[in-house]
Each structure stands twice: as structure tokens, then as C-alpha cells.
Amino acid sequence: MFGSRNPGSFTGKLFSAAINAAERRLYSDHFNVSNRSPYDVIYADGIMSVRHYYPLEVDEITVGTEPMSVAPDRHPVPLILVPPLAATSMIFDLLPQRSVVRYFLARGFDVYLIDWGEVTADHSDLSLETYVLDWMPAALTAVRERSGQQDVSVFAYCMGGLLALMYAAVSQDRHIRNMVTVASPVDMHQMGIAGGFLSAIYRPARVVSEVLNFSLMDLPARYFHVPGWFNSLAFKLTNPIGSAVSSLELAINMWDREYVKVHSTMQKWFNEMVDYPGETIKGMVVHMALNNSMARGNFKLGGSNASFDNIHCAILAFAGDTDRIVRIPSAHKVLDIVSSEDREFCVVPGGHAGVFAGASAPENTWRISADWLDQRSGEKRQEIKDKN
User: Which residue among 95, 249, 314, 373 is least crowded, i.e. fewest CB within 10 A of its CB?
Assistant: First the structure.
């Protein structure tokens, strides 16, 4: 009976809109099309895990609206995707036609992903040391054991890029051959208004800390734990007009089921962000925000010294031309603190989300990264047997 209605008519669209709205309200997962690429979990520690994605079994995929051929063989150097902390790993496999995972698989890379897991208030004690000194080396060891390769490449987004850089600085891991950072705020004093404020209070905060013999690091982690809803709100407030327009466009196109799937999946990213662990926030505020230690090239992490001039791998860094969160100078700073001879910086279209997974990202950030990595992932390409 429902199929007899003409979806192109005004009445048909109203009917379809009502059905889709009700289903979206009651069964929201029906409209989530993220995380569709199959994988194996090759390592797990608590909420953290490492995924190894299966090779594509098709000759062609769709990227955006354009067909893309799948490379017949694969690079020997595995590619490790590193997410930020506030967003889940779904952003790397967001939509079937806009998936970082599928794109790099199609370009011939052996793709792995570090999944930081779903942080809750029970995980307030997770620290920068946990991520950098414990989980990063464990993840890389798992990838090396599965792939049989020592050299690896890293593709990291936002805070993921900072964690990857910290690991490389502390470990002096010379087998990280290539690293791509996308919108990673290395210089937090260059982050627009917020950066100016942090720069202004840096010296007064140090004086107060020394006089009172007090440090934020001495306070309980639970005081600093940031819930996911707050991260979502803060992200949306960077572009409130865009958020309002997006909601209006959804209402107008509610009749179009495919449109609703894409919109709902994208909104899941922004609406369901993950908590920031309190202990991690303490480290970020003291070391990275107030002291701006990454931009200065050195800071203590646990009992280790993170010296960024220890990094010699090839570096490619990106910034979005309309990114209101990570300004261009903030992302560019990575080139000033590493010792890499092979280093490049690109400004591409997009805001903080768009530069990584927006409609223009495949033709810009992804293509540039894949071309750059292609040239640096071995002179010869070899077929890698599926170990699954």
C-alpha cells in the first residue's frame, strides 16, 4: 500500500518524511552507515584495541560520486590510522562513499587503526602516559607482528597527531618511516582567541604556581573529566550557524532516506563525542595549553623526556583554510620542532571536520596524502597475502 504513493509528489514526500522521522526517532541505528568495512581485532588492552582491515574484494569503489579503481597489489609498509580522543574511530570509516579506510585500501595500503575506545567517567585516570607510553608502543608492536614489517606509516587526525608525535619523540622509533598529521594543534598559543588567552596567562600562571607551590597536576583527575556532551556542544559552538542550517536542511530533506542516512551518520560524529579522561586533560592543560611545551620542542612525560628533535621521519602536515579550532600557524608548527629533512605543509579546503572528512577531503587531504605516502612506502610494491 505504501509503495503505491508517488514519492515525487508533495503528499508522497510528506508521507515519506513522516515515516523516516518516526523511524529515525525510534530506531536511529537504521540510519547509521558508518563502520561498515570488515576488520579483525589484532590486539586489545582494556577499552583500547587495534584493527586490521581486510583488503577490498572489488575492482572499483565509489568515492563521493566518482568511481575509483582498486589497486591490484599492496604497499609493504603498513599504514596506521590514529584517531583523536574526543571522536570515535567511526570517523575513519564514516560513509561507504566517504571512508578514509576504504580510500587507502583502494590505493593499495595495508590499513590498521588504533581504536581508543569509549571513555566514561570510570576512565578518569587514563593519562597522556597511558596513551603515549603504554598503548602506542603496544599498538605498533601488534601491527609489526601482524604485517611482518618493521617500517610503518602513520596517518593521524587532530589530537591523534599529537599523540603520534609524542610517541615518536619519546621512543625515538626510527622505524616510523612516514607521518601525516591533519589539523593537529602543535602550537596551542596560535589557536586564535583561545591561543591568545593561553599565551597571555602563561607567565602569570607560572608565577602563581611557584609562589604557592601548587600545580594542577596535584588535583584529583575526576575534577577535570570532560563528558562527551560537553565536547559535542563546544564543537558545535565553533559554527552555530552551520549547525542550525544543517538541522534545517535535514527537515527539508527528511523524505529522502539516503540523505537522512548520510546526515544522521555525520551528526552521530558531532552528537556522540567521547569523554576526555580527567588525567589526560590535566596533562594537556599544563603541558600543552599553558606551557605550550610541544611548540617549545620538549617536555617531560612520566619519567621520559619527549624531545621532538628526535623525530626524523618524513612529515606531511595539513591545516584547513577555514578551521576555527586549529589555525594554520598552530598546525604548521610541527615543521619547526622536528629534525626531519623531508617535511611538507599543505593548506586545503575545509573547517576542522571538513579538512579530514568533508566532501572535498577525498580530492584534497586524502589524495595528497596517498600520493605522498605512495612515493615513500618503498620503491617496489609487493603483494601481501591476506593473513586473516
Answer: 249
pTM of the model: 0.86
For residue 306, what is its C-alpha cell?
A: 619527549
> What is the spatial distance between Cα 370 and Cα 120, in angstroms, rounded to a whole number?
34
Copy the grid coordinates of residue 377: 612506502
Helix (H) or strand (E) holding 140: helix 136-147
Which pLDDT tens digit goes with each residue over 148-200?
999 999 999 999 999 999 999 999 999 999 999 999 999 988 876 555 544 55
Summarised one tens digit per residue, pLDDT across range 294-307 is: 999 998 888 888 99
CA distance 356 to 94: 11
Across 273-289, b (16+ Cβ under 10 Å) vs e yields bbbbbbbbbbbbbbbbb
Nearest Cα residue to 164 out of 83, 88, 274: 83
